[in-house]
Design goal:
This protein has 244 residues and is mainly beta.
Length: 244
């Protein structure tokens, strides 16, 4: 996941305190052939728990439909709770002082627990899961990789994305609104999610996630920028990580 002063990728560690999104950039997790079971592939990503504390400064830049840009600084922190559990916090610091404070508690082989509001005393309600962090398209459910906990997980095929060989993972659920299906391009060599498309009930893409920036430092690849596009609202959200 992340070292105390930088985001470094090591064996079986996430690079980002995001989606989790994040992203694993470590040794190969899956062999090139055959296709892995979808449930096992999803589990391998969501059960990767950070073992080191970290604090990372970042900026969320949102470009609205009218091309207006909103920049909000934030701090992302990781606090391990033993070997199989951790807290990931996201604290925004807007100029008006009315920031957000979100906590995602992740544990091995368990569903996430979410808390919102300052000091994270209130458990998140259903309506909280689709609120965007700092007016972005990155929601609480995105940051917790909730789609990897959905009941149906299927590896569809192998496909190249961003010049990398990937497994295409389909995550789906039966609901009447919101996102029903997510296609993720999981890098075969590293196990990280390079891109993801989020589909609504009408079969149309609602949002598109993509890794936009990678920096190599001390022989390790580090994610320094990622993007979420809201297709319907014509907005773009970019999370830039200030790596030291």
């Amino acid at each position: 996941m992340i070292g105390a002063r930088s985001v470094k990728m090591t064996s079986r560690k996430c690079t980002l305190p995001l989606l989790g999104f994040i992203l694993l950039w470590s040794h190969p997790v899956w062999s090139a052939d055959p296709l892995p079971d979808g449930q096992e592939l999803a589990r391998s990503i969501r059960d990767t728990i950070p073992t080191e504390s970290a604090s990372l400064e970042a900026t969320m830049e949102v470009t609205l439909r009218d091309r207006k840009r909103i920049k909000t600084p934030l701090t992302i922190q990781i606090k391990p709770l033993g070997q199989a559990e951790c807290l990931m916090t996201y604290e925004t610091k807007p100029s008006d002082g009315n920031g957000e404070y979100w906590v995602v508690q992740r544990a091995l082989a368990k569903r996430n627990e979410y808390r919102v509001d300052k000091m994270a005393k209130r458990l998140a309600k259903r309506e909280d899961f689709e609120i965007g962090l700092a007016r972005s398209s990155f929601t609480l459910s995105d940051l917790g990789l909730e789609f990897l906990h959905w009941p149906d997980q299927k590896t569809l095929r192998k496909q190249r994305r961003k010049s990398r060989s990937c497994h295409v993972l389909e995550s789906s659920r039966s609901v009447f609104e919101g996102t029903l299906r997510v296609l993720s391009w999981v890098d075969i060599k590293s196990g990280g999610i390079l891109a993801a498309d989020f589909y609504s009930a009408d079969g149309k893409v609602r949002k598109r996630f993509s890794v936009k920036g990678l920096t190599k430092k001390d022989g390790q690849w580090q994610v320094d920028e990622m993007e979420m596009r809201d297709v319907a609202e014509y907005t773009r959200s970019r999370l830039r990580l200030h790596l030291k």
